[in-house]
Design brief:
303 residues, alpha+beta, five-stranded antiparallel sheet, two-stranded antiparallel ribbon, 15 helices, 47% helix, DNA-binding
Length: 303
DNA sequence: AACCAGGCTGCGC
DNA sequence: GCGCAGCATGGT
């Protein structure tokens, strides 16, 4: 019997796949997925084996084709679950749009970015590594560093002419050396941070499950910031992108501050009071506010 | 050519 | 507890 190699995932109201694709593509070279026309192709490690799939936008759903790997019901379920997490498909963002509508300077976003869902990094290890890599360097360079890491320590799947990479396994990265990373233009510190983090995941001292079992928000932050190389910014970034905690705002983020000033929402980068006031109004939707502000950085021209 | 990048650690007070 | 130098390097 032939395996069914394609399936659909229903999408919520106010979800626009093209907006999400745009964000995935942005101006950067992200090696963890490939935008091909109006579709995105991604390799994903499942419990048994890695798979490669393509997502296209359909009428009221996403159309998912399995390109490589076995189409067992278990695999289909895992891919379904990953995509749901990736694009935050279980969330109805209408309440966020209501809040945007109340804020004069942000109301335009409901039209301009209509249907943009927060694209996440479901894999906690990857989210934390990416946070560390991106610390204090520009994104163009950060994506380049990530690509070098992934192409050296990750595995890949092949489809047609192209290769699609999987993020390195913690154990593989843990076995790397600081000098190897330094040769890839990682700083001494970042190399140490990444190897240390990889060890924690490889030995099971840290995992997404462990973090999810911590119920108190501050305790989750603390569990992360206790790890060398992870400060409050990286902790919140990962809690937002991986665990989808709405209140996990990466305060102090360079892009966030830049956007807040550009949109005329705070006087200057030190206007903590103005920022607190704004985020209080978006309680429960703080991470979406952050995400849309990041999105606004790519607008053609600020006023 | 400064100044900025999706910051963090370790130290001194 | 708070402030700050130092980190390393590419972009603009």
């Amino acid at each position: 019997m032939k395996q069914q190699r394609a399936f659909t995932i229903p999408i919520p109201e106010r979800f626009n796949f093209k907006e999400c694709l745009w964000f995935l593509n942005r101006d950067f070279d992200d090696c963890m997925h490939a935008i091909e026309g109006d579709t995105v192709v991604k390799a994903l490690p499942l419990t048994n084996q890695p798979v490669l799939f393509r997502i296209s936008g359909a009428e009221h759903s996403l159309y998912v084709e399995l390109l490589e790997g076995d189409a067992t019901p278990e695999h289909i379920a895992e891919i379904h679950s990953f995509i749901t997490a990736w694009f935050d498909l279980d969330r109805d963002i209408q309440p966020f749009y209501t809040l945007l509508g109340k804020e004069k300077k942000l109301a335009y976003m409901a039209e301009s970015f209509n249907g943009l869902h927060l694209t996440g990094l479901p894999d906690l290890f990857e989210a934390l590594c990416w946070g560390i890599i991106g610390q204090q360097i520009n994104l163009t360079f950060a994506y380049r560093l990530k690509r070098r890491l992934v192409e050296r320590y990750g595995t890949y799947m092949t489809s047609g002419e192209r290769q699609y990479y999987l993020f390195p396994e913690p154990a593989v990265l843990a076995a790397a050396s600081v000098d190897e990373l330094r040769a890839m233009q990682y700083s001494q510190r970042k190399a140490e941070y990444l190897l240390g983090l990889a060890s924690l995941f490889a030995t099971g001292q840290m995992s997404k499950g462990i973090l999810e079992n911590i119920r108190i928000f501050a305790a989750r932050q603390q569990a992360l910031t206790a790890i060398r190389g992870i400060g409050i910014w990286t902790a919140n970034y990962a809690l937002m992108k991986s665990l989808r905690m709405p209140e996990a705002v990466p305060y102090g983020d360079a892009g966030l501050l830049q956007a807040l000033v550009a949109q005329g929402l705070i006087r200057d980068r030190k206007d903590q009071a103005g920022m607190d006031k704004l985020f209080r109004k978006f309680r429960g939707w703080e991470m979406y506010l952050v995400f849309y502000l990041w999105r606004s950085l790519s607008l053609p021209q600020q006023v």
